[in-house]
Amino acid sequence: MAGFDKRVNSYAEALEGLEDGMTVLAGGFGLCGIPENLIAEIKRKGTRDLTVVSNNCGIDGFGLGVLLEDRQIRKMIASYVGENALFEKQLLDGELEVELTPQGTLAEKMRAGGAGIPAFYTATGYGTPIAEGKDVREFNGRPHILEHAITGDFAIVKGWKADRYGNVIYRHTAQNFNPLAAAAAKVTVVEVEEIVEPGEIDPAQIHTPGIYVDRIICGTFEKRIEKRTVRS
């Protein structure tokens, strides 16, 4: 079964083939469940002119935010952009193209991409700037707009546990956009906290089956808390 072993030994190997101008789908929500080491490797590689699809663009100095420092992102497709001053500056200066998408619509665009569904209609966004230029059809007396699926060249994903065949489990809310991204790219790379032997993961607990995963790497993680709140 050696041919099914998807483990790689370095982050350079994990992102081999990532080139300028590609589309990268990144899991995570805020700083929860982000592929922080894969993001750091993209920064180290200096890959540029990227289109990045993710719920948000990290924060200043961490997560996807580090890719803004050397202007490696050309276009950001996201649903929330409120925690990053550098992002705001580049947007206002015309240095960064941004496509804001309602959060549920973004999730469904990625899910549809992974399922091979090219487009779908949704009522979300009708009557707002989101709907400009999009086809409108009425279903059950309510107007809906046409949204196209999203796929990527690479997906960078953060899991909790995986086996060598690429079957992945996410931990609690760190599941967020990760399984959606994992299914919707030509090459899916997953970094995890632990790699276990085949058979140690209950098949009923698998969130992303190994059929979607091309490379697995085990890493260590900082796991920052975005906004720490304590009771007095």
UniProtKB/TrEMBL annotation:
Pfam families: CoA_trans (PF01144). Pathway: Aromatic compound metabolism; beta-ketoadipate pathway; acetyl-CoA and succinyl-CoA from 3-oxoadipate: step 1/2. This is 3-oxoadipate CoA-transferase. The keyword Transferase applies. Keywords: Transferase. One of its GO terms (molecular function) is 3-oxoadipate CoA-transferase activity. SUPFAM superfamilies: NagB/RpiA/CoA transferase-like. The keyword RNA-binding does not apply. It catalyses: 3-oxoadipate + succinyl-CoA = 3-oxoadipyl-CoA + succinate. The lineage of its organism: Bacteria, Pseudomonadati, Pseudomonadota, Gammaproteobacteria, Pseudomonadales.
